[in-house]
Amino acid sequence: MKKNKIAYMAKIGVLGAVAAVIMLLEFPLPFAPPFYKLDLSESVVLMAGFAMGPMAAVLTELVKILLNLIFNGTVTALVGEAANFIIGVAFVLPAAFIYKKHKSFGFALLGMGVGSISLVILGAAVNYFIMIPAYARFMIPMDTIINMGTAVNSSIDSLWTLILFATVPFNLLKGVVCSIIATLVYKRVSPILHKEF
After folding, report:
1. Tens digit of pLDDT for each residue in 48-71?
2. CA-CA distance, 170 to 172, in Å (whole number)?
3. Nearest to residue 151, comparing CAs of 164, 160, 162, 140?
4. How far apart are CA 83 and CA 81, in angstroms?
5. DSSP secondary structure letters along 39-106
6. Looking at the DSSP assignment, which residues form a beta bridge with residue 28?
7. What's the pTM value of the predicted model, to 2 decimals?
8. Residue 171 burial by CB count (10 A; 0-12/13-18/19+): exposed, middle or buried?
9. 54 close to 70: Cβ distance less than 8 angstroms
């Protein structure tokens, strides 16, 4: 039992570290302001959830965020990191729960679909009510944030339109791309993730 627990934690540590490294490879998208940068680390967290269950997904997400803090520090007084954790969990947790109940390819796809919808909805709410207002209060004035959105999309002229035309498509794309990567890679790494040490 103790050996299994150590192996479980070791796998979470390794997957969290891999996700943290992938998180460093972030890049902007042409339809979103430059402070939105896409990274594909959630694909690794998804695989942790599929292989070891919902709690493993949450713990892997936490390790990823903590390691990213060590690598990058914080410029948001931890608001950005907390929001990233909440939004990441909103994506991977539904997928891991659904797949745990029905371990089939179809239910994996359903889980990732539900997770992507959850990511979009919670991502919009967290950005609208917490993250962007916190940035506006502590770092950049709201007008400047909106103007950064307007520079890439003239339809963005308020916080609401920033969420609608930048945050929502950004998170939808993130959910879809990370789901595709997890689908393509999981079968190959699954034997390693399920291996007992």
Report:
1. 999 999 999 999 999 999 999 998
2. 6
3. 162
4. 5
5. --THHHHHHHHHHH-HHHHHHHHHHHHHHHHHHH--SSTTHHHHHHHHHHHHHHHHHHHHHHHS-SHH
6. 37
7. 0.92
8. buried
9. no
